[in-house]
Amino acid sequence: MVLVAHAPWGELDVADAAGLSPDEVLSRLGSGQGGLSPAAAAERLRQFGPNALGTHRVRATAVLLRQIRNPILILLLGAALVSGLTGGGTNALIIAVIVALSVGLGFFNEYRAEVAMAALRAQIRQEAEVRRDGRAGRVLVTDLVPGDVVSLRVGALVPADLRLLEVDELECDEGVLTGESMPVAKSVAPVAGRQPQDQPGCAFMGTIVHQGSALGVVVRTGSRTAFGQIAAGLAEKHGQTAFEAGLSRFSRFLFAVAAVLTAFIFIINVSLSRPLIEALLFSLAIAVGIAPEMMPAIVTVSLSVGSKALAAKKVLVKRLVAIEDLGNIEILFTDKTGTLTEGLITFRQALDAAGQASDHPLLLGLLCNEATVTAGVPVGGNALDQALWSAPGAAAGQEAATAAGAYRRLAVLPFDHERQLASVLVEDPGGGRLEITKGAPEVVLDRCAQHVPGSARRVLDALFSEGARVVAVASRPAEGIQALTAADEQGLTLEGFLAFADRPKVDAGASIAKLERLGVQVKIITGDNGRVAATVCSQIGVDCEGVLTGAEIESLDDDQLAAAIGTTTVFARISPDQKSRIIKVARRTGKDVAFLGDGVNDAVALHHADVGISVDSGTDVAKEAADVVLLDKDLGVLAEGVMEGRRIFANTMKYVLMATSSNFGNMFSAAGASVFLSFLPMLPSQILLNNLLYNTGQLVIPTDQVDPEALARPAAWDMKFIRRFMAVFGPVSSIFDFLTFWVMLALLHADHAEFRTGWFVESIATQTLVVYVIRTRRIPFFKSRPSLPMLLVPTGAALVGAILPYTGLANLLGFAPLPATFFLLLSGMVVIYLLLVELAKTRFYRIPHARSPRPPTSHAERLERRIRHRASRFIRHPRP
Q1: What does the pLDDT read at residue 239?
Q2: Eight-class DSSP state of 10
Q3: Helix, strand or coil for residue 155?
């Protein structure tokens, strides 16, 4: 073994490396079969930088730009500047200060939320198995450098562009680079003159190990890789989730309404011969009043609060908007291990074909084993193989298997989920050759040449009925065989069974019941035997309506499968392709589907689900494909995530409904008033101050409590519902605005300043206080209480609006003191207004509102989504 610490070396192109032998590539990279020394790796990391496609940092300037890029706001500031230059300096200064306060408020809240979210993202760590100083270990993917020797296994996400040194039946899924669905076979033979991404001797960053295993040396890292160049092309555009698309549609809708009102008001005021700049300022202030400029801050704060709450419960959200998607799920497909069971697989016993205790099947199981063992401790491989090496009672078998000269492994045919088998070719102590095969009992028994005794099947049935995981072991003489293929896994003799224990979780049944109370159906998809899964369901107190096997699914068309999904609890012995098919068929029914999986065979299904969920201990490919990562594989935590997603959406909708009712109504009133009044009903600075106070009151909406019925079922954006809501509640608000106009002019005989002051006070009172009615479908306060911040802040904003005319700022802002009679009348009007809104709300919600279905995604959209997900695997998130 050669270790190179500081040998001269040069950077190597992937195409050049593919045309060289493995030894030549190692020499050119200054490395060896044992990898680099830590010192050499550290030096190269300084030279080439981290193996990342980018670094996500929270930038204050970017957050600030998002706050001020509102075109209407920019026009308003421009008009204020012109006003200041033409003699209206005081008014222009007031407008500028109010706009600065509004922008500052949004910036403070959004920046604080972004910092909190960045700290959460930094907790997600991605690692690779690397040889350094000849020892296998795990390092952060971002710390890989050219010359590092990396091990690849089934399910691994290739962490950099590699030249393969050793391969064992290796196939890679390169669809993310080529768009092709079939995996590509790999070899170590040098091949020159091919396209950069058509190299059988190389494995590329972002691709997936579909089958087999390999050893490779890193040639290119980060943005210099083939995948890095593709991901960079998508960096400038961002795909939208259903939640983001809904936000975008809503914002465009309100901006369109604002544009129409602005143009109408401007034309009316100009036609009435009012000063051009004054008319423009007033019109733009109206537009700012209705435009949802605080929507980004409201949504970001809501998602930040939700993500922090979920992180405290060990749920990390890779894409924040997936929190809302999580709240929408109606069917959850999950695997069995670690969700219904503890996920701590331990070796229980080895039995021969007659059901008697025997060490011989254990010895064969240790020989046919894919675990990576360092100093007698397993550090890699599947859980069952690791359990064999970790079993205290397996010491004798380990000693027999590893004794010098006892057995020599000649060839390996790795496990894959299609065959459900793994095989090895060994030379025994006498010099003879033996093929050992182990895997799913049903498959192994089918490959046995001799008649399998009934006693063996009875032993197997007994183990299944106890809920044990069982691996069957078989063998056959293999004289003359030099290499193994799948065709060799025939004519076997059953040697016995290896039984493993994975105890049911005590709280799994309660967690499933909690999800079902939220309207989420839980269904099990497992590669294990159906009887084992049904037994586990029974042990945790979950009713198993039906069991459907992979073989039975093959005989069903999609319509039949869609019908069967509704009456099936357990899907057993399911292949990866069947998982994906089940997910896609379930989505065809119009349901929002989530899938929880942590294995390599779960990756495609995770991509096809509306919400992909994995666990921190899962395979790289599963974590990469997922939208949500659980630090603890617990369905109870997942139920909390569903409720949090629904809570965030419900609170976001409160802001939306506020903006489309009282806010729109007040701005519509301003448009109407400008038609029949001989003066501006409110000064531009007063409109902006009103908007600032209103937005301040709404920033605490993310902290509000949500009624249980709003959490009991999923919800989604529905623009028809929002427009109907605006059409009903906007005019109600305007009625009381016009009533205020009548009171000010007919009863109080107010002058211009008093009129503006009266409408300002009434407007901010109705706008902020109506949230207590709109925030719930119940009777407010009596049957639905707001949170303490929600109770204090909007009410405080209304009180500030009422007090301002009596402060030293009154003259500067154009306010005048109001008589006590006005406040008596105002109190009565506000009470009547809130009662009228409550009555309208009761009538409005009597009409059922259908939920808009989620639009299907195209192949191109799914591929782009896959690239984005995979690229996020290689983004550094330093803790702020």
Answers
A1: 47
A2: -
A3: coil
Find the radius of gyration of the CA atoms of the chain.
Answer: 33
Distance from C-alpha of 55 to C-alpha of 110, rounded to nearest angstrom:
20
Taking the CB of residue 100, how many other CB atoms lie within 10 A of it? 12
Tell me if residue 598 is catalytic.
no
Buried b / exposed e along 495-506 (16+ C-beta atoms within 10 A): bbbbbbbbebbe
* Strand 135-140 relative to strand 202-203, pairing: unpaired
Token couple for 514? 């909690």
Strand positions, DSSP E, 180-207: 184-185, 202-203
Residue 748 is given by DSSP the state: S
Nearest to 313 by CA among 631, 567, 624: 631
- Is-above-0.70 flag for pTM? no
Structure tokens at 740: 């205020």
Residue 786 carries which DSSP code?
P
Tens digits of residue pLDDT in 225-270: 887 777 665 444 444 555 666 666 776 777 777 777 778 778 887 8
Number of helices followed by number of strands (H, E) in the chain: 35, 25
CB 471 within 8 A of CB 463: no
Residue pair 310/323 in contact by the 8 Å Cβ criterion: yes
- Spatial CA neighbour of 625 closest among 644, 593, 588, 599: 599
> Do 663 and 539 meet the contact criterion of CB atoms below 8 Å apart?
no
Structure tokens at 532: 């084992």
Whether the Cβ atoms of residue 822 and residue 758 lie closer than 8 Å to each other = yes
Which burial class, exposed, middle or buried, applies to 264 when counting CB atoms under 10 A from its CB (0-12, 13-18, 19+)?
Answer: middle
Short-list 579, 582, 580, 614, CA closest to 597: 614
Gap between the Cα atoms of 364 and 424, Å rounded: 10
Q: Where are the beta strands (DSSP E) in 550-588?
A: 570-572
- Give the integer Cα–Cα distance in Å for 172 and 209: 5
Assign 832 a pLDDT band (cuts: 50, 70, 90). Answer: very high
Residue written as tokens 């093959």? 554
**CA 76 centroid distance within chain:** 38
Identify the active-site residue in 335, 528, 598, 737: 335
DSSP string, 765-780: HHHHHTHHHHT-SS-B
The Cα angle at residue 334 between residues 333 and 338, in degrees rounded to 5: 170
Burial (0-12, 13-18, 19+ Cβ within 10 Å), 824: exposed
Separation of alpha carbons 276 and 287, rounded Å = 17
Q: Tokens for 297?
A: 């801050």
**Residue count of the chain:** 880
Q: Is 313 exposed, middle or buried (0-12, 13-18, 19+ CB in 10 A)?
A: middle
The single residue listed with the structure tokens 């500030």 is 800
Residues 239, 435: Cα–Cα separation, whole Å: 51
User: What's the distance, Cα to Cα, between the start and end of the chain in Å?
Assistant: 42
pLDDT at 772 over 50: yes
pLDDT averaged over the chain? 79
Q: Which tokens go with 571?
A: 């899907």
Q: Whose structure tokens read 């809503």?
A: 250
Rounded to 5 degrees, what are φ and ψ at 202? -125, 155
The DSSP code sequence of 390-418 is: H-GGGHHHHHHHHSTTT-EEEEEEEEETT
